[in-house]
Amino acid sequence: MAPPIETPNKVSNYQQTPHPPLNERILSSMTRRSVAAHPWHDLEIGPEAPKIFNCVVEIGKGSKVKYELDKKTGLIKVDRILYSSVVYPHNYGFIPRTICEDSDPMDVLVIMQEPVLPGCFLRAKAIGLMPMIDQGEKDDKIIAVCADDPEYRHYNDIKDLPPHRLAEIRRFFEDYKKNENKEVAVNDFLPASSAYEAIKHSMTLYADYIVESLRR
């Protein structure tokens, strides 16, 4: 009688290659049924703020869709489609770990060569401030360039931009809510130093906001 043929024990690839364990933050967030990270609170502003800072992009250059941060979940949601026949002239987003008087993070318009997908973040360099009144309320915007775009990273102040570029930006924000019967007023652009002060102020307000939240 022929001896039985021995067959090696087969081990599945799953058993051979153990998966890396999930870190405690992800496990905790899954237990809470929430997202793993919140871009407003979990992303650092960056060590070079207020001059160079992280910016989370909500709306890509050339988009007619008004995306915005959902402050409760940290996801990027569709707020509306613009009513006017205009598109965002540059990438638009917010600075993490800042807050303004309207209870939203600081807004930023980032000038660079290419559109960026909503939800991504980049390093931006402040070059100016656009004072704006939206329906009677202060709604200033930081004007910045992408700090890692070779075409724009050498810009240091709003005066470095061509006058026509500033005229385009002003016209967009003056017009983009007209068909909604909402009034927006854009005042004269201010230099980089004013942008730094506005960012520092929003960082201070955010620190106060966190302390107040912890006391509740």
Automatic annotation (TrEMBL):
Q: Is Metal-binding found in the keyword set?
A: yes
GO molecular function, a single term: inorganic diphosphate phosphatase activity
The answer, when asked if Magnesium is one of the entry's keywords, is yes
Check the record and name the CDD domains matching this protein.
Answer: pyrophosphatase
Enzyme class label: hydrolase
Catalytic reaction list: diphosphate + H2O = 2 phosphate + H(+)
- What InterPro entries would the database entry show? Pyrophosphatase, Pyrophosphatase_sf
| Any matching Pfam family | Pyrophosphatase
> Which domain of life does the protein's organism represent?
Eukaryota
Name the needed cofactors. Answer: Mg(2+)
Leader peptide range in chain numbering: none
List the GO biological process terms: phosphate-containing compound metabolic process
Q: Which family does it belong to?
A: Belongs to the PPase family.
Q: What is the recorded name of this protein?
A: inorganic diphosphatase
Its source organism is Cajanus cajan
